[in-house]
């Protein structure tokens, strides 16, 4: 337990506080670990205890043993939403925060009023890393590929819509491919890229658009589109819920763009966690209700 907590927290004082032990007890445990494995395991640095290569290699094996023992000696956990005071930690990009989380919080406040929810702004790779490290319980979003340890439950399949401000010169006519590529485009990219899935689709038609602006999140993108002549191609559910608020108009893109799946992702070690199962079930119902509206 000391080893796994050191790998996660990287500070002996934090491990002592987390486990309810003295720092002396933690130091003795580290000494025994070093003697057992014949390696320093953790090196002191200004940023905390840095694991050695041996420690990094041992971590998944030791974590698996600790989890197996914990499951073996623990009584079956029963989750009662009405009496729960647990904290559910979600990782999501602002698309899912906007389309799924508000209604999910309504369910929480109604069915699990004592539960707390923490939401971290995490995109694909950071969310997967956080799941593997145990820093979050669930991640909402999509990923084309996942490590075997991360499981996902499909919530819905998402398509795309083009958004532009009311009064935009292209708002009065049908969006043709020629007009689409001639316009100046805004793209949502956490890394600041000026190329995305839309450009891959256009390439198949032998076309290229003008991407002049990249922003890291969807809601700022909608605000920018509302006050400029930039247009953007965004997830359809987000557009459907937010276009009116930003006084935007929308239309289908003039080309076929591959849809993507929005899922609830969790680590395999939590596959039987009743709180996680309840949350995923609630999110699935919300997604299904929205699809039927």
UniProtKB/TrEMBL annotation:
<dbReference type="InterPro" id="IPR036388">
    <property type="entry name" value="WH-like_DNA-bd_sf"/>
</dbReference>
<dbReference type="InterPro" id="IPR036390">
    <property type="entry name" value="WH_DNA-bd_sf"/>
</dbReference>
<dbReference type="InterPro" id="IPR000847">
    <property type="entry name" value="LysR_HTH_N"/>
</dbReference>
<dbReference type="Pfam" id="PF03466">
    <property type="entry name" value="LysR_substrate"/>
</dbReference>
<feature type="domain" description="HTH lysR-type">
    <location>
        <begin position="1"/>
        <end position="52"/>
    </location>
</feature>
<comment type="similarity">
    <text>Belongs to the LysR transcriptional regulatory family.</text>
</comment>
<keyword id="KW-0805">Transcription regulation</keyword>
<keyword id="KW-0804">Transcription</keyword>
<dbReference type="InterPro" id="IPR005119">
    <property type="entry name" value="LysR_subst-bd"/>
</dbReference>
<dbReference type="InterPro" id="IPR050389">
    <property type="entry name" value="LysR-type_TF"/>
</dbReference>
<dbReference type="InterPro" id="IPR037402">
    <property type="entry name" value="YidZ_PBP2"/>
</dbReference>
<dbReference type="Pfam" id="PF00126">
    <property type="entry name" value="HTH_1"/>
</dbReference>
<protein>
    <submittedName>
        <fullName>LysR family transcriptional regulator</fullName>
    </submittedName>
</protein>
<keyword id="KW-0238">DNA-binding</keyword>
